[in-house]
Amino acid sequence: MEVLTVDPANLLSPAASSSSLSQQEVATKIKQTHSLTVLLKHCSEQLLAEYVRHQGEPFSSPDFQPPAMAVPGLPSPSVPPEAWLALSDGKRLWHLAAAYAALPGLLGSVRRQQAELNPLASELHRQLEAAARQCRGLAGNLERIMGALGVTGPPPPSSSLGGPTTGAFLAKLGGYHVCRLHRDWAMRSHEALGLLRTKYPL
Amino acid sequence: MITFLFLWLCLPRVESLTYPAVISPQDPTLVIGSSLTATCSVNSDLHLKAEDLYWTLNGRRLPPESYKVLNGTTLSVALANLNGSRQQSGDNLVCHSRDGSILAGSCLYVGLPPEKPVNITCWSKNMKDLTCKWAPGTEGETYLHTNYTLKYKLRWYGRDNTCQEYRTAGQYSCHIPKDLALFTPYEIWVEASNRLGVAVSEVVMLDILDVVTTDPPADVTVSRVGDLEDQLSVRWSSPPALKDFLFQAKYQIQYRVEDSAEWKVVDDVGNQTSCRLAGLRPGTVYFVQVRCNPFGIYGSKKAGIWSDWSNPTAASTPRSDRVPGVCDPKSGEQNTTLRRELKQFFGWVKKHAYGCSNLSIKLYDQWRVWLQKSHKTRNQVLPGDKL
């Protein structure tokens, strides 16, 4: 399966500074980013399913109810769905940018932990790496769009704590939360970019 | 009280996360069949009582008879005769509050120490590299992730080397790509290790030159031999990689009929690059493969290792389709030279052989007619035949 990675440097002609994109260029960028969120939505579902499969019960049971756990540096999409849709485009983009700035690092940590816990699960490792790459791509795209629309971005995430070595069960739980949040944010970004597309049609 | 203090001191100190409870021991490693007592201590802030807790292992609830309340906030569970871990990431032992929510967890690693790896076999492709494969010890399934390391050293020098490229020829294999010496023996062994221990295989000693294999023969072509219905001619080129030091090569050919799984093998094909297959069925598609064994490299008396088979090449034997009437000689037309000779022969027989008075050229003519009639039957095209 082809991974749609976006190198921020390739997004637009190098000569164009962040705010001098034509309407056409912005609309193209938004459409491209929307396609990326479609891919992310699909891949994040697959990743979550693949992840729980390797952790064993109760993670892999359909009625798994994990305890709430704060994942440092990554906000849960805490704004409820109706309120999310009521936000301005700029605010939505801001939240997305914050999430996608943090997700690649977190997915990387999960991959490192799974290399120890499930050393033979090569498909899981591959999907975790791909997910981090896709999130970086999306973060770059969002930055360009926000620049074109004149929206200020969030501050860069604090360098990940690294954290003390947790036990295996907590590592499994933490990884679960990251994968699920990755999926939830993919759904949110897909919604948000869909709305932007209608506002900036090609 | 002292136990409780001990448990409290063992709580992990993580700044940003507070845990509702803690299980001890965390992530133990155990041998299959052993027993374990674990404890779940809830954070006193939560106002949960030990009696309200319960345990699950891999999602299955553990029987209350195995629980014991140690104090107001600590519940223990006794596990006996543990089975091997269901997944390599560890069995999930979880402490729940009465409403089912997860309070804490610990991963159990239950298995067996590794057995000595066995059956180490190695081969070198064109004397450039070395690939070895092995089998895990008799138990095979240790339930714990087992790491294998292939090591090698020159017999007379001290330095151990570690192979880096694993799983190149199956799960238990490793590939050494370069810097291999010829004419001097290597010692090779495999170490298996998991959470419960280490096991080292027997040492295998070999010289690279004794385990050489090569590429399959190239340019394999299979063609008909004129009109012969039961033969095919197979031609190939010797593998190019060994042309500089190949003194001899042995080949083997295998062939089968298109819709059969049974291969026939032609052995003892010496240092030649063609061979004729005979005794084949007419009008049949055959698949043919050739492989090569480098033999007598640098004067070695040993055979090498057979290469892979070449990709199958297909060819079909001819089938003479005698349409009735086309190729049969007309009744008047005979093979005149032969007939003339036979007439002379029978004349002579009549004169000199006693008791053969019935033999005459007429008998020969009758035989020819009979032959043509039975040929027609034999070569008749039936509806079911594949042409």
Question: How would you describe what is shown here?
Answer:
The complex is a heterodimer of chains A (202) and B (387). Chain A is built from 5 helices and no strands. Chain A has helices at 23-55, 81-86, 89-117, 122-149, 168-199. Chain A is elongated and about 50 Å long. Chain B has helices at 2-9, 336-352, 361-378, and strands at residues 21-24, 29-31, 36-42, 54-57, 60-61, 67-71, 74-79, 91-96, 102-111, 118-125, 130-135, 147-154, 161-162, 165-166, 173-176, 186-194, 197-200, 204-206, 212-213, 218-224, 232-237, 248-257, 264-269, 274-277, 285-295, 313-316. In chain B, a hairpin with a 4-residue loop joins strand 10 (118-125) and strand 11 (130-135). The longest helix of chain B has 18 residues, at 361-378. Chain B starts with a helix and ends in a 9-residue tail after the last helix. Chains A and B meet through helix 5 of A and strand 8 and strand 9 of B.
